[in-house]
Amino acid sequence: MLHYSENYKINKVSVIGLGYVGLPLACAISKMTDVEIVGYDMNEEKIKKIKNRICPIDDEQCAEDLKTVNFDISFKSEIINGSDLYIVCVPTPVRHDYSPDLEPVESSSRTILKYLKKGQVVMIESTINPGVCEEIVKPILEESGMQAGVDFDIVHCPERINPGDKKWNVYNIPRNIGSTNPAITKITADFYRSFISAEINEMPDLKTTEATKIIENTFRDINIAFVNELAKSFDVLGIDLLTVIKGASNKPFAFMPHYPGCGVGGHCIPVDPYYLIERARQSGFDHKFVKLAREINNSMPAYTINLLANELNKFDKAIKNTKIGLLGLSYKANVGDIRESPSIPLRNILNEKFASLEIYDPYFLELSTCKSLEEILEKSFAIIVATNHTEFLKIDSSLLLKYDVPIVIDGRNCLDKSELTSKGIHYKGIGH
What we know:
The chain has 15 helices and 13 strands. By secondary structure, the protein is α/β, with parallel strands linked by helices.
């Protein structure tokens, strides 16, 4: 095992992957420390944007930091050579069959392998299931002929980032860090403390650390599935779920409100449970509860379309050939991020049913058929609000009556139900 002295200093850090996780991290390190920081990303267009101080992600803090920080970046991997600490911040998506796709992590590990030297540290920030560091990253790096925990060390610090959040950012979200070596756990934790003003929790080992992020997002997925199933149930029972949740929320302990919607999107919640499901399956355990939650949440786009069909029936209309407006492609409000967005299956189902479909998202005009809210309302008989962008919150009865839109399916429960229904609009939310 390498022996790190108390005076050990991290002099050069490379961030591999300059997306929602890596770019804010690189900016924070550059802004708050005196270490040499470099960034590597294979996307040449992204590198050009960053060099021109154009933020390629929806992150106000990062965009502000880019105006003042200075660090070298490249689409050529040679830039990471000589790093004391390599930080991997690449995506960990799922394939079409929901199996984990660890190719970006494997590819990044092989890139580091070309430059790995004794005494260096490799940190994985990408979200991974328990065992990835030891079962996938470690064997790749040990192709160097060196041994992890002896000649070099592996650290895991699962990313925590919430795109579009004005309060929580890379500087103030607590983090967990664990490694192959207690000494390097403390050294890397202290390094993170130099630019993060939040708790940095030192974990006992890699696998335990890997498990923290997986259960954080699986917890959310399960609770969202619970309220989504309640939305279906309470619709049959004639109960407004949002009113029930509001009432339950005044209990000062043992209840945490979650809210139903037309589906779960983003790079974490609909993805991470599959990493847990698959790794447990390989060890002989069947995560029935977690799989069921995924099934329920994946069913919500189809359920939303059924709500639309029911409202159209009241007008003796079918989805086929009816002018339907889909408002929003992003998976969450006020960000240009389409990853795992439920709007995609909503769009696909409507196309499969031969709807006369119009789409508008101010963050994805290139994927939109309409260029303004007014245009899509003018062209639609019914609308589905799939993303609660601020622009869409201004939809009220006067606007809908002006453009003769009698049906609203509110996939985010973000509009004023009472105001709309009082003016004769056929409104249907998810459990609302």
